[in-house]
Amino acid sequence: MSHKLKVGELRESYLTDEEIWRIFTIVLSSKSVKSSTYKYALIKALIENLYQVNERFELTYDQLAFSFTKIYWNLIVQHDLIKQNRGKNARVVTIIKEAQSKYGIPSQFIFDKIDEQLQVKLVSKVKATMKENVYGALYGDTRGSFYAFDHKKEFFKLNPAVHSFMLNYQRLIVNLTNYHMAVMIEELNEVPSINYLLGKVESIAKRSTLRPFERLLLNHYEASCFYCEKGLSGKKGETHVDHFIPWSFVQSDHIWNLVLSCNKCNSSKSDKLPKKDFLENIINRNEDLSDKKDDVTITKMMMNYKDKKIIMLYDYSIKNGFDTIWSP
After folding, report:
1. What's the DSSP call for residue 274?
2. Pairing of strands 273-274, 325-326
3. Phi-psi region of 147 (alpha: psi -120 to 50; beta: other; left: phi over 0)
4. DSSP secondary structure, 100-123, as one string
């Protein structure tokens, strides 16, 4: 049984796009064993961390477990979608509901709002569950060709060909995964309709606020709009934190993709890509952030950042349909 594996070696180093699509189709279809929503959550966690891989295309179990926990916390606590498994409750549901009950956490609290120490405890427990039920299962469904993993070393290594494929077709993979995950949740929970669910599944990775990033950036930079350079007075509603590459493509919040913006620029830019002139500006800003070794929080947030990541993100977002270019 593949889900019991503790080590999985990469069986194929090179795959064509056609071969990868064929495997993805099986993973998302009825031909795959779908006893829980776990595999969809792992795919979503991978997408959220696509630009966080190191030079060897590796991610840590902690990175993936954090995203995985956040996905389920927001589904289970915020939206009361308890059934994530056929048969008995999925272990991740039990972990999260027990923590919510023990600490008296209201249902409107998304994962990012709960105490950081509790986040760490939850991620640790979910990571153990992922070792037992998640990594091996998807590894089996993908025939060992998508990734390698090792429970003892707690590392996950994407096949470079699969990483490139996921970048190229990121938006389509996100939409397919969201749809199939919503279909299964609807079936398990007997909710009114798939339309009702899709919005919830699409938004589960979103933060409620980017204020912590605003404070960090204001600690190190003048209060001015990244785009039009207008000064920001600090009045309520005037200073915004904007995703340089739109969140709807990135599906995650990284400080190296976040900038301070005025209300006017943030509103007009919306879900568009800024013109390429600004790419050099954010690269320079990120080089400066990387140099701030005295700030442990920023150093941690800039871990594994390379200039080529934001360049790659910009190029791949255009390939994925974000080709309406904006300027102030």
Report:
1. E
2. parallel
3. beta
4. HHHHT--TT--GGGS-HHHHHHHH
Q: What is the mean pLDDT of the segment spanning 293-308?
A: 88
Task: Quote the DSSP letter at residue 74.
Answer: I
Segment (H or E) for 278: helix 277-290
pLDDT in tens, 8-66: 999 877 899 999 999 998 888 766 666 789 999 999 999 999 988 999 999 999 999 99
Whether the Cβ atoms of residue 278 and residue 290 lie closer than 8 Å to each other: no
Question: What is the Cα gyration radius of the chain?
Answer: 20
- Say how far apart CA 219 and CA 66 lie, in whole Å: 26
Q: What predicted TM-score, i.e. pTM, was given to this entire model?
A: 0.81
CA nearest to 141, candidates 53, 43, 268: 43
Map out the domains of the chain as residue ranges.
Answer: 2-203, 211-326
CB burial of 23-41 (b: ≥16 within 10 Å; e: otherwise) equals: bbeebbeeebebebbbbbb
